[in-house]
From TrEMBL:
SUPFAM superfamilies per the UniProt record, alphabetical: Homeodomain-like
Source species of the chain: Mesorhizobium metallidurans STM 2683
Descriptive protein name: Transcription regulator tetR family protein
Single GO molecular function: transcription cis-regulatory region binding
Family annotation (Gene3D superfamilies): Tetracycline Repressor, domain 2
Keyword set, alphabetical order: DNA-binding
Start-end of DNA-binding region: 26-45
TM stretches of this protein: none
Domain HTH tetR-type: start-end pairs: 3-63
């Protein structure tokens, strides 16, 4: 019953936040639509803000699952990494994600880079970068630093798109520039590291 009540409240709030936005969503309206009381909301989530956090956690989990599918479809680890990062940025075009996660979320809950889900994202990205480095696809780089920088860039790109007057046009520009940045990680024959190794071998 507890899980069912929580699920009902999250579903009703998600619909309200996605259609009219957090500020306009009435707690009485979505508790009534779920057939529940305000008391149930306070008991399970504390307040409207706590409910928004729960809704964002649910959407985040769905986004993560979708991104894993995207990366798994790729022919190699690098392409999977690029596709996953690109797909995350392009999700900013989806109305629900745009409104709840990228606009209302930061306005109500503060900087998304400080959300618990962001730490999970950085950890996952760091693992991907470590594997890419181990297989020799990318240049040697501090794994955590690279993960934080890439994660920050993708989050900023998504928020830029979500708040843009022309999200589709902004998305195209953001994805194109982001992919150029990612390509800078690739190890190229004859690149600086190869030249360094060659020079060290001469001494």
């Amino acid at each position: 019953m507890i899980a069912e009540t929580r699920a009902k409240l999250i579903a009703a709030a998600r619909h309200a936040f996605g259609t009219v936005g957090y500020a306009e969503a009435s707690m009485d309206d979505f508790t009534a639509s779920a057939g529940l009381t305000r008391g149930a909301l306070y008991h399970h989530f504390g307040d409207k803000k706590g409910l928004l956090q729960a809704v964002i956690r649910e959407i985040d989990a769905e986004m993560s699952a979708r991104l894993k599918v995207v990366s798994a479809r790729a022919d190699n680890l690098w392409q999977g990494f690029v596709d996953e990062c690109t797909a995350y940025i392009e999700m900013a075009l989806e109305p629900e994600i745009q409104r709840i996660v990228l606009r209302d979320g930061p306005a109500v809950l503060g900087d998304p880079s400080q959300w618990p889900s962001q730490n999970e994202c950085i950890h996952s990205m760091a693992e991907s970068i470590r594997r890419l480095s181990d297989e020799g696809t990318i240049v040697a780089v501090d794994v955590e630093a690279a993960a934080r920088l890439i994660s920050g860039a993708s989050l900023h790109a998504a928020q830029w798109i979500a708040n843009s007057d022309d999200p589709k046009a902004t998305s195209k520009k953001a994805v194109k520039a982001f992919n150029v940045l990612l390509e800078g990680l690739l190890k190229r024959p004859g690149g600086p590291q190869d030249r360094m190794r060659a020079l060290s071998g001469m001494h």
